[in-house]
Give the backbone structure.
Amino acid sequence: MGTFLRFFDRSSAWLADDHILVAKRVFWTERYSRFYLADIQAVSICRTQTSLVWSILLGAATGLLALAGLLRGFHPAILVWTAIFGVPLAINLALGPSCICCVYTAVNVHRLSCFNRLSKAIVFLQTIKPLIAEVQGEVSDDEIAEKARLIPPLRRGAPGAPGPRKISHYEGGVHTALLVMMLLVAIASGLQMAAQNEFVGWTLVLLVMAQFGLAIAAASRQSGTDIPGGLRMVVWAAFSHSLVLPVLFVFAGVLSIRRGFSDEFSSLDLAFSVILLLSACVSGVLFAVGRHLLSTFRNDYRLKRMAARTRTQTQAQSQTFGTTEI
Amino acid sequence: MAISCPKCSSTIPPDRYNRPSSACPGCDSQLITAAFASLISGPSQTGSGQVLIDEDQASCFYHPNKTASVPCDNCGRFLCSLCDVDFGGKSICPACIENYGDNSSATSMDTERVLYDKLAMGLAIIPTFITQIVALFLAIKHWTSPITIPPRHPLRWRWIATVLIALAELWLLSMLVFGDF
């Protein structure tokens, strides 16, 4: 039904008459798990950003190498390296979005790592749904939803089942600092592009390093909090930007040095200017999007608290005074 | 058991079950949750065994004070409804299930297997005398050992390839070490 291959392990799922066999192979040992169709209570598929992250990383590397090829000509070494990053990128894009697929029974939750792509997982679900209905019997969705409400929620530490994670509120202090830093990086990139000044250049380097550190701090701080998904993506985009920017500069510089700096000075200037312009645009856009998301998040939270406070006061008043019939 | 999000482990509200697409309340990820009848039906009720009334009646092998209802399809012992385990359509006693793990032909109970053919093939590729000899030893010892449970081509091509590669490498290494014969 599905296969997942990594460097040294391989996971596959097979459909038997009355059960699903999941075989996980590590080196030369194979472990088997059987899920009988009569015991499967639910299957869930959750979309993840893993394939997107890989696409961004591989795409950035491929784009970088393609840019080098365009500037310097497609040397065989550049072609080979472009293929090394480009082929996995093409495969990743062809396979589609990534996901996590889990099977739930009465006693455990098992992740099916062989169905790590949304298209495969949906085909798997569509295949086993009628088989499970044949074994367990047809029940309407409304009846399942109604009776499932009586099932108690998961308690933390329950054996064989993941407990719910506590979500705490976070106002976004580190995120504010990160957004300010991104604005400064955007301004510094624009100034450096215009002025080509050494002092501005070194300031830009320090600001990018500070942005990198703040992005890591924000990513770790936002874990387990109610920060919205869009703002989390902005943090990761800022992290990637502060990582890719120095690499781009080094790459452009190395390419120029190999060809002779004095001969290629004008094209080096052009390459640096393009990189700075891109950096300024990316930082500016991230700052604008991040600021909008953060202010929306804070306003929504403030409104919810006000509504909750008003509700509490109204309940307290009605309990104190009671209801009187006129 | 309540269904939780695979990503953030938040409990998924039942009104989001069996919908084409929904969002997790915890991490806002796109989610498809399919719930089935066994989620709400609860565990199947097994009988606790009928108490033996008449001394002439057959009793369970493991519970002498309970009436036997079925014989074990594997060993033939009489079993009460408590000891009767439905295993792939057969009635099996707990002792036979426990012993199944030692029986190499009972593939339906295997939870782990060593794939000797892959191990031998990996060893055969590494070019040292010792690994080739170990690979040949494994091929001879485990030629008929059960391989992977998922269906495979009946021809044990891995063993054949292992033997050929091991012999070829032994010959090449001998040529290198001892020169032309």
Residues 75 and 96 of chain B are 7 Å apart (CA to CA).
